[in-house]
Amino acid sequence: MDKNEIFEKIKEALQESLGTPSEKITLKARIIDDLGCDSLDLLDILFSIEEKFGLKIKRGQVEAMAREGLGEGEFEQNGLITEKGAERLKQIMPEVDHSQITPGMGVYRIPYLFTVETFCRLVEKKLSENTASNK
Prior knowledge:
By secondary structure, this protein is mainly α. 52% of the residues lie in helices and 3% in strands.
């Protein structure tokens, strides 16, 4: 499945869950700030994406990926992203405006960083993991 097919299916999921007109759904559109998604919508979108692609995506998947390989307290301390944590988020979320990812940012703000492209990249990663494990 190519990037465009992935984008189109994610666009469908967003339209179904949010009722957003297709022209507003671009790769750079922020899921919460631009498309008006709330936490319940996010769960609905993830469920829809799982169904469309036959994948399992855990809630908190992006944060878990950012924490991977970092020791206790290296990613965040007292609910705030550390310098190392901010650098890690920038690595796994190259599609996000890096000026939005700063040390001291609350962990609860991570979903506010999500763009449509974040979901596309997550699906691409999961699909390639599934392909690799089926070989």
